[in-house]
Write a structure and sequence with these properties.
Structural class: mainly beta
Shape: rod-shaped
Helix content: under 10%
Number of helices: 3
Oligomer: single chain
């Protein structure tokens, strides 16, 4: 049992001066043990002008308090507050200097340090809550504190409250060991100089930043343990990087204040799990990785987030990164990648998202539910990626789906506005654009299957599509399905266009060098319909309708693929001149009158079930390689006949172009089964066969009546 200090006022005696200290020690035996100082047994002592010991223990097994109002206190080895499990030690530094090798606030017991002024210099380790049962608190109201290494909650529990003054640790660990639990509250003042701050090294650590400034090299929240950083106000800066969820679990919440630094990493290692919740304030970094080897999540519901170089979600193969933008502003000066080698997901419910470089969705997804997305360069949806736009506005210089041969990219436009300069659906690989709503506006060119290794499909199921030019290359497919829609822009089809249960209007010139399939649908061409030598139309249903307001220019040689003898063709006022004059190119071979047959039997010769030219003027032009040609139709509506001439059909004067019609169809009865000369040229309007004269039909009907009457009499 060590003797304790008596109740004589140490402060009163030592104020006599440093020269009386040795005499006071001799007069009060028991509180100084050789070169060690022990304050215990409920004693409260005051530091004289200058003392030096090897070790100082305040509250060894009982309670002890040491106050310093001025002067200097130097310990060569260790200052301990609350040494044993029953010990309770308190140190209050008002002014003066305190310094030594190491400080333990709460070794096995309870330690409390309050600094109102002066300076406290720890050359080696400052520990709060050293052993599992240790509890240590430090409250810095003013003055300066410096330490080589600082542990708040080593194996025990540590708490640091920073209300004023300056704290400069070489490194800072909060919740160091697995049993350690530490907390740091920065209300005001300056915390700076640490090469690394670890919040949750192996244990549990929290940092609450209300005001003041915190600057460090690297800050790790959830290094290998569990860590939380809450930034409410003040300023945070890291010259190296902010590591949230390195190998452990890290949570960063920013409600206000300013956070800035070189780089942020969420989920650094494969076991790491990091999240950042930006509610308000300003966040600025150069680079940002959400899900490097591990899992990272960023939720922004306010504030401003600025990344000056690059933002990546899902960097490496095991990495997984998600970003939820619910409100606020996200600005990326460089490039942004969602799913580089790992998986990335970006969900934008609102707010503003601006990317000055490229936005690349690789192995990942982007959901635009509302808000503004603006990309100054290109959006590339490639790898195994998809972009779904429910609403909001997406503006980009260019959009590419599937870049390399093994890539796949899908864009689902369900609502909102998509505006680009150019769009490429499959440069390489497989690209699919599904539009069920919204507006897609392409200022220059929308291109499907831009290269021979690309397969591009555009499925238009609703909404509006506007482009300068729509190029559908040989491996491209443009589908219009189950909708009423208008497509604006010149179309050049070298692949496949298919309309299914649709009513579609093509506003500008449509050039078909591939397959145009109607199954069944109604299509209107407000300008010219041009069919090249390799192009053809396939429309096998009586509901299929083609309306041409401009010229129908066809030089197709694909008679075996062309199938319109069940479809209807009509000309209407419009086109570039908005008039009733139309050129109609004839590509069929003149095989003469087919006889007593229907249009269904006339195949492989560009025939139509119905041609309607009501109130229109048609100029027939030879469109095949032969000198002459013919058009076979079931019904011809709107022919303006006068005598033996058709006044609104003009035949090419250099070729013999005939039109054949079925005289037995009721809609053709106005033609009387006659042959007419076409206005101009050598062509004629000719029936399939010579119909029976009306008198023969009457005689036949009369004989049939007499036969029926006799049959009835025999029955009676």
């Amino acid at each position: 049992m060590h003797p304790r200090l008596n109740q004589t006022s140490w402060g009163r005696n030592l104020l006599l001066g440093a020269g009386l200290l040795a005499l006071l020690v001799l007069l009060t035996p028991g509180w100084v043990r050789g070169q060690n100082l022990v304050v215990d047994g409920g004693a409260t002592k005051i530091v004289p002008p200058s003392i030096t010991f090897d070790n100082e223990t305040i509250g060894e097994t009982g309670q002890g308090t040491l106050k310093q109002f001025s002067g200097s206190n130097t310990f060569k080895l260790q200052l301990t507050l609350g040494d044993q499990s029953t010990g309770r030690g308190t140190y209050k530094l008002f002014s003066g200097t305190l310094g030594g090798e190491g400080e333990i606030i709460g070794n096995d017991g309870t330690g409390s340090f309050k600094q109102f002024g002066g300076s406290n210099t720890v050359n080696s380790e400052l520990i709060l809550g050293n052993q599992p049962t240790g509890r240590g608190t430090y409250k810095l109201f003013g003055g300066s504190l410096s330490a080589g290494v600082s542990y708040i909650g080593n194996e025990g529990t540590g708490s640091f409250t920073h209300i004023g003054g300056t704290f400069a640790p070489g490194s800072l660990g909060i919740g160091r060991e697995s049993t350690g639990s530490g907390s740091y509250t920065l209300i005001s003042g300056l915390l700076s100089g640490a090469d690394i701050e670890e919040i949750g090294t192996l244990g549990s650590g929290t940092f609450t930043h209300i005001g003041g400034t915190n600057t460090a090299g690297r800050i790790a929240v959830g290094d290998s343990g569990w860590g939380s950083y809450k930034l409410i106000g003040g300023s945070l800066h890291y010259s190296d990087y902010l590591d949230i969820g390195n190998s452990g679990t890290g949570r960063f919440t920013q409600i206000g204040g300013t956070s800035s630094g070189h780089e942020i990493i969420l989920g650094s290692s494969s076991t790491g799990n990091g999240s950042y919740n930006l509610i308000g304030g300003l966040l600025s970094t150069e680079d940002e990785v959400i899900g490097e080897f591990g899992s990272g999540s960023f939720i922004q519901s306010g504030g401003t987030h600025s990344v000056t170089i690059q933002l990546i979600l899902g960097l490496l193969s095991t990495g997984s990164g998600t970003y939820n933008l619910n409100a606020g502003n996200l600005m990326v000066t460089g490039d942004e990648t969602i799913g580089q080698s790992g998986f990335g997901s970006f969900i934008q419910a609102s707010g503003s998202h601006a990317v000055n470089g490229d936005l690349v969705v690789g192995i990942g997804t982007y959901f635009l539910k509302s808000g503004q997305l603006s990309v100054s360069s290109d959006e590339v949806i490639s790898g195994s990626a998809s972009f779904t736009q429910l609403s909001g506005n997406n503006t980009a210089n260019g959009l590419t789906l599937a870049f390399d041969s093994t890539d796949s990219g899908t864009y689902n436009l369900q609502g909102g506005n998509l505006s680009t300069m150019n769009e490429t659906i499959a440069f390489g690989g497989t690209g699919i654009f599904n539009q069920t709503g919204g507006i897609n506006k392409v200022t220059n060119t929308l291109e499907l299957a831009a290269s021979s290794i690309g397969s591009g499909t555009y499925n238009l199921k609703g909404g509006q599509l506007t482009a300068g030019t729509i190029d559908i290359n040989s491996s491209g497919t443009f589908n219009v399905l189950n909708t009423v829609t208008t497509v604006t822009g010149d179309v050049v089809n070298d692949g496949t266009v298919k309309t299914t249960n649709a009513i579609v209007t093509w506003n500008d010139t449509f050039t078909n060098n591939g397959a145009y399939i109607s199954d069944p649908s109604k299509q209107t061409f407000n300008n010219d319909l041009e069919v090249g030598p390799d192009g053809y139309l396939e429309a096998t249903h009586s509901q299929d309708m083609f309306t041409v307001r401009g010229d129908f220019i066809s030089t197709s040689t694909q008679n075996t693929l062309w199938d319109t003898n069940h479809a209807r063709l009509q000309f209407a006022q419009g086109g570039a001149e908005n008039d009733t004059m139309h050129d109609f190119y004839i590509t069929g071979v003149d095989n003469g009158p087919p006889g007593d047959v229907t249009i269904d039997t006339i195949v492989d010769n560009f025939a139509w079930r119905l041609l309607n030219i009501t109130s229109q003027d048609i100029n027939l032009v030879d469109g095949n390689a032969a000198d002459d040609g013919a058009l076979y139709v079931g019904v011809l509506m709107g022919a303006e006949v006068s005598g033996i001439a058709v006044n609104n059909i003009v035949s090419d004067s250099t070729s013999l172009l005939n039109i054949y019609y079925d005289p037995d169809l009721a809609l053709n009865f106005y033609l009387g089964g006659k042959t007419y000369d076409l206005a101009g040229g050598n062509g004629q309007l000719i029936p399939f066969h010579t119909p029976l004269p009306p008198s023969v039909l009457l005689l036949g009907s009369g004989l049939l009546g007499l036969g029926l009457l006799g049959w009835r009499r025999r029955l009676s």
